[in-house]
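Structure ticket #2291
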Amino acid sequence: MPRRSKRIKTATQSGGVIGNLPRSIVVHVLKYFDIHEVARLQRLVCREFRDAGQERIHERGGRKMWEEGIALLNGYDHQTVDKRRGNLLCYASHVAGCRLVAVVERMQQENLSDEAKQKMFTDLKELAKTSPYHWVDYYIGRWYDKGFGGEGKKKQAVVWWNNAINGGNEQAMFDLAIAYEDGDLGLTQSITKANELYALAAEKGNAVARSNLGHNYQSGLGVEVDFIRCVALYEQSAKQGHVKAQFNLSDMYRDGSLDNENGNPMTIPKNHPLHFKWALAAAKQNHIGGQAYTAECYENEWGVEQDYASAFEWYMKAAEQDDDVAQHCVGRFFEFGRGRDIDLIQALFWYRKAAAQGDQEAMVAVERLS
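Resolution: structure written out below.
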């Protein structure tokens, strides 16, 4: 019997086709090249594998930084919002070789040409094919959702977001929940389905999903009213720095849960220290309602020592953002010298601003001072 050709042993972990070829075939192929060409080809192949490996390492490192960056920017994965650090990590991910970031940045530009939109889609599909990643699936869905593929294909977003959800993408869970809540993308409107998706995202630590689900428990949208569950979700989101949850929590503690019919105590009673705590947290993030509530607490000694100067400062911040109630309060502080000297000219100025927005008490004050 003829002896079987020896096999070439491969050093690669994957074991390629060359490793399974008979030595005689390899020898036959190589005899058409001189030794220098063989050496050159060997170096070229080794260099290509090295570069490809380094590219994959950079890409994975970039993706890790990208995930950490967007988690900090948006309050994903139980992270506390930190815009500055999040932006730095997203930028670093681009430098590190995350190709997805470049496509996402282009997607956010305005007045894109049809050619640019198609190139973006091609790049995303190539990324999805060569290196599967749930964020790529999410952004292909986002591409369809933005109408880049035409209005008739927008519902394709649902397919890609479901793919992303299967990969654990919590932003896809949230966006699909919004689509169900609104009956968008060809879906039958279903607040129940929306709440299921909010709950999935909330379990993964999505601050916005927690806030939205908390609101639905407060209002009884698709679920029975549950103020205990509502406050728990608001607190989780508020501690992550989500400003809307901070304000909603402050509002809840300001008046209580308002379910005290027939003399029964409220499930969530008024709590001015917590009302002030969360109002101040929202105010520091430039939330108009939080600023007005913080001023109100300082004025009325709710959860904090009375301080008219601080009350005026926070009322002014809200008034400068065109809050009519805050404008009326600033006028009142100027008129009666609370936290500052009496200044009737400034009082009339702010009363008029509030009156122009329909504030009835400010209208009376304008007549009184004119």
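Closing remark: DSSP finds 18 helices and no strands in the chain.
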